[in-house]
Amino acid sequence: MTKRSNRIAFAATALLMIGSTTTALAQQLKGNVVDKNSHETLIGAVVTVEGTNLKAVTDIDGNFHLNGLKKGTYTLYINYVGYKPQRIDGVRVTDAPTEDAVSIAMLPDEQKLKEVVVTAVERRSTDAAMIQAAKNSPVIVSNVSAQEISRTQDTNAGEVIRRVPGVSLIDDKFVMVRGLSQRYNNVWVNGGAVPSSEADSRAFSFDIIPSSQIDNLTIVKSPSAEYPADYSGGFIIVNTKEIPTENNLTFSVGGNWNTSSAFQRFSYGKGSATDFLAFDNGLRSLKGGIDASLRPLLDNAGSKVGDNLYDLRGNGLNNDWRVKSHNPIGDLKLAASLAHRWNLNGRTLGLLAALNYTNEYRTYTDMENNLFGIYDATNDRSNYLRHSIDDQFNNKVRLGAMLNLTFLSRDGNHKYQLKNIFNQLSTNRYTWREGVDAQSNQEHSAEYYYRSRTTYNGQLTGKHTFTGDALDWSVGYAYANRRLPDRRRYLLNDMQNPGDIALHTGNDISREWTQLDEHIFSIGINDRHSFDFAGWTPSLQVGGYGEYRTREYRTRAFYYQWNPAANTLPADFQHIDITSLLSDEQYMGADRLYMFEQLQMRNNYRGHNTLVAGYVSASLPFGKLGVQAGVRFEHNDMELISNTRDYEKSETSRHYRTDDFFPSVNATYKFSNQHQLRLSYGRSINRPEFREVSSSVFYDFDLASDVQGNTELKNCYVDNVDLRYEFYPSRGETVSLAAFYKNFDSPIEWTYTVAGGTNLVYSYKNAKSAANYGIELDIRKDLSFIGLRNFCWSFNGALIKSKVKFEKGSKEENRPMQGQSPYLVNTGLFYKNEAHQLDIALLYNRIGKRIIGVGRSEGSSASDDNARVPHSYEMPRNTFDFSVGKKWGNHWEMKFNVRDILAERVYYKQFAKVKYSDGTSKEKEEVSRCYKPGRNIGLQIIYKF
After folding, report:
1. Residue 790 has pLDDT above 90, yes or no
2. Nearest to 219 by CA among 206, 205, 233
3. Which of 632, 613, 617 shows the shortest CA–CA distance to 540?
């Protein structure tokens, strides 16, 4: 066993896990242990019964249960390292069942303790534990514990992470840190890299991880040699749960009612029998997969009509385009979890397993969806590239599973873990659009969209403590796919006869199949060696990391055709109800409707990425000053394999290689045990992703535009400086004020350009440079000092400014960075009553106006100041969330919440800066998207065995 210092003994023994000894007797005694001053629940407090062998250990909520007690009066002893031992006499146990619990408040022991021997599992699931971890960390971090998650009733990691200072969300799942878009953030789950969940950008969908599986979530905000260099906003570490504190089996059932969706009409197309399990059973797939050989189009004589022409019949296609409707009652949420620990002759084996299922409906009706081009200053009016109203119906399903196994040696010096997370997700969406195109044609269009994603993340890890050394290693594998089987679209307009909306060309009917597969293999090892030079105790950490990533993206696109000169279709077939026309086989055949495959081999690509890294870092204590300095080397080789011709496989390979050193210094000065100041510097990198440098083109129906890559993208290098003051008033409380500055060389941004006069093309582009700086404040405070016992308050706020710079002479304007919010506010008021097992929370969130797309045009380098497409902004909105949690005894719990109470409209706008011929100028506001999200009312019932 390992001998620890006083301070480590306090933290570790607080996390000590002792299996309770039970007998076959009748009664149970329960209670709760808290800190008397802060009312923070104490995990791992040992409760013993005088004169018996019975013991219990408090769980994550500070609760304990003693089973097997006979009727009588007992004396309890409560021990918790760092707190004064407590004795409670006269505790009565009767035959009558009771819901009363023994409430125990312990006083911290300020005296120094003698060195003790501890075998423990470090737990970071409580607010106090995570605050202590942040306090002792050599780098600047922010975090959220499982305890805080349970109070807020957040349902997934995307909602959880909103509670972190300087963090905001895009589309309720993509995380931005310090105003920087998701591309500048890196994500690891359980110590391993995860694949991008999107085909078109670097992103991780945090909504795939249910909050019930999270032990803690940490964001590292300053570079450090032991972490990958590819992050500038934050390195996000999600850790799922490990050894349970107690054995239990839990089931929960819940519902959610969105006021814009529940009991309202919901339109949808024909789906497969397994859609409710988040995957398509093959109804939408090409028979034989993405490379399927389809039945060619044959004439009446059985001869092939032409190349790349296919019959709509006999190919196993789902030709049902009819739209159905129903009225969903609401959303369904189911979950089950199993926690068990075994004592194996002094060794500990822990198992955590979880299943969760969500099926939700979201309806957005009368949603404005507009595209604006360059403002018409001559006629003083907006230039619509599209002016439409959408009705969108979304059905999202998630099926998730987690299985974690942890083995702890007898002396606690060796821990082995096998962690697995699996998620199957799907989105089934039908969109109906009415509006006017850039040529002022009236149009009706629709999209039938189904997307499924499979993600798996697994790691085998080991942590070993030796005399003077701490060694850890990991081997990981991650997989993600994305399937878009049979994305169908059609367009009707009045281009030939104003006011007469009809089908005009087969190219306005399309079907598309795409598939994406990504694999990541990783291995890492780290060792920290501690020295003792006559009382001076520096440490040296070295490590290596290797990662191999492979991705393949493939797509096939088909369009409908008919022979205008020789067909047997009805004379007015272009005016027949379009869904009936496309669904009825009598209108299919060589002399009717058939399919043409548009070969676009340049849209397919493969990629391989090899990352090899090594680092050395030294931790140097100089009294009150602690310095951690290190350097990291990374060799990265990304190979993109794409086709040079559309009509045949013509692969060519291009490598993007870099060899870089990334220095970092993190210094912490401790004025006292409560006050400390941090200063850090580090260099980092942002590399383009496979999709961003590929020539692949994808049509996005929401944007009504093409999305394509840029083969000439360069790496972005970032210099980061942070200064943070931290104050820890008492256990579980913190106040921090931070300032940061980042300088970007060649930042990568998401832009859109006018092409062909009326069409927008979205892509990626390097700017010359950018600067990003700001301040952030984080407060977590118990309010009993103002008489509000059982209340606590949290506040996270940030003020951020940024400026992008371009080459001298460029007509591009200096502006804020794309995705950067000028301010972020998250705050919450929490009430926790242990005696009544009641939790109440009121939360507020607001983000500032931010650019989500950078407007450019082919003529933006000309002298005309108006020749620029306006940028797109997401506008601020206020969100209030309210939640209540109540427990009854040891088994039942109910959670109720109302999210987005105000249900304010969501606005996306463009702001055109217009200069008139008389020399005056004005800013014109244009609404590009607007919809009502509705408020969400949720109820969940939990039963624990």
Report:
1. no
2. 233
3. 617
Q: Using CA atoms, how far apart are residues 241 and 341, in angstroms rounded to an integer?
A: 13
113: confidence class by pLDDT, cuts 50, 70, 90: very low
pLDDT at 43 over 80: no
Distance CA 186, CA 203 (A): 9
Average pLDDT over all residues of the chain? 84
Lowest mean pLDDT among 96-100, 278-282, 445-449: 96-100
pTM for this structure?
0.81
| Contact predicate 926/911, CB 8 Å | yes
- Which is higher by pLDDT, 218 or 927? 927
Half-sphere exposure of 489 (CA within 13 A, CB side): 18
Q: What is the model's pLDDT at position 120?
A: 40
- Residue 643: count other Cβ atoms within 10 Å of its Cβ: 20
Write out the H or E segment, with its range, that includes residue 819: none
- For the beta carbon of residue 473, count every other beta carbon within 10 angstroms: 17
Candidate from 46-55, 278-287, 325-334, 919-928 with smallest mean pLDDT = 46-55
Query: How far is residue 216's CA from residue 228's CA, in Å, rounded to a whole number?
Result: 20
Token pair for residue 525? 């090892």
Cβ-based neighbours of 577, under 8 Å, separated by 6 or more: none
Task: With H, G, I as helix, E, B as strand and everything else as coil, classify residue 135.
Answer: helix
CA dist 353 to 212, 340, 420, 463, 871, Å? 11, 9, 9, 22, 47
Contact 676, 670 (CB under 8 A): yes
- 287 close to 316: Cβ distance less than 8 angstroms: yes
- Which of 509, 486, 561 is closest to 309 using CA atoms? 561
Question: Residue 7: which pLDDT band, with cuts at 50, 70 and 90?
Answer: very low
634 pLDDT above the threshold of 70: yes
Pairing relation of β-strands 594-598 and 823-833? Answer: unpaired
> Diameter of the chain by CA atoms?
100
pLDDT tier, 767 (very low <50, low <70, confident <90, very high otherwise): confident
Distances (CA, A) of 573 to 322, 459, 579: 17, 58, 12
619: enclosing H helix or E strand: strand 605-622
Query: E strands along 687-767, which residues?
Result: 697-700, 705-708, 716-727, 734-745, 748-755, 759-766
**In sequence order, what are the residues at sequence separation of 6 or more whose Cβ sits closer than 8 angstroms to the Cβ of residue 649?**
601, 643
- 865 or 868, higher pLDDT: 868
Burial class (CB in 10 A: 0-12, 13-18, 19+), 327: exposed
Give the pLDDT confidence score for residue 205 in this predicted structure: 64
Q: Which of 83, 86, 93, 94 has the alpha carbon at shortest distance from 16?
A: 83
- The secondary structure of 521-584 as a DSSP string is EEEEEEEEEE--BTTB--EEEEEEEEEEEEEEEEEEEEEEE--SSS--S-TTGGGS-HHHHHH-
- Coil/strand/helix, residue 768: coil
Contact 138, 722 (CB under 8 A): no
Q: Cα–Cα distances in Å, from 164 out to 149, 154, 430, 885?
A: 12, 13, 35, 22
Give 863's pLDDT tier (boundaries 50, 70, 90).
very low
Name the nearest CA neighbour of 631 among 677, 668, 667, 681.
681
How far apart CA 266 and CA 858 sit, in angstroms, is 41
- DSSP category for residue 10: H
Structure tokens given for 20: 């309770």
- Helix and strand numbers (H, E) in the chain are 6, 48
When pLDDT is averaged across residues 689-711 and rounded to a whole number, the result is 82
Rounded mean pLDDT of 331-360? Answer: 90
Token pair of 306, please?
Answer: 């032409």
Sheet holding 27-35, edge to edge: 63-69, 27-35, 102-106
Higher-scoring residue by pLDDT: 404, 25: 404
